[in-house]
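Sharing a chain and its predicted structure for anyone who wants a worked example. Both blocks are below, sequence first, tokens second.
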Amino acid sequence: MSSRPLTREELAVDPLDAARLLLGAHLEADGVRVRIVEVEAYRGGDDPASHCYRGRTSRNDVMFGPAGHLYVYFVYGMHFCANVVAATDGVPGAVLLRAGEVLEGLPLAHERRPAARSDAELARGPARLCSVLGLDRKYNGIDLTSPDSPVRLFAGDHAGEVHSGPRVGVAVAMDVPWRFWIDSPAVSPYRKGGKRRATA
């Protein structure tokens, strides 16, 4: 089980590089630990699918750094999504955590996601991942690299190919291949974007 925390310096890179770094990493919160198997990268001013495309606001402020913080937002009036902030301080960028495999806290994860028909479905998709980990807006902005943080991010590793393809559910820049995943039954199904928007 990975125990080396990821550092701010490791995450202060282009979101595309941070996305690959996060594959296989472990995220631990509120009694549950998951292995990240699917992510999406989002930049700022040059990425029209990003929350930061039109500039800094009170909502997206965390995305402007420093790296290593958690950006949590509410979408469709019912779900939370979590992102790891990347890039250098003042430059917006983040990686949406799309799916994970539950490694620890399996009974608690099933309590939080009673509709899941299998372990693989528990954290398949960004909203389910947040639900399993107990993440909501109160965790927005916390420092994942701090030893005292209630949410911790640990280095991981993985064998095999890293796959890439279009991001899911975005309304613009739909064909940009900035979704990355590794082989796992927990990876979410691809749904092409359209009118609604659920991105970082």
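Comments welcome. Helices lie at 8-11, 15-22, 106-112, 126-133.
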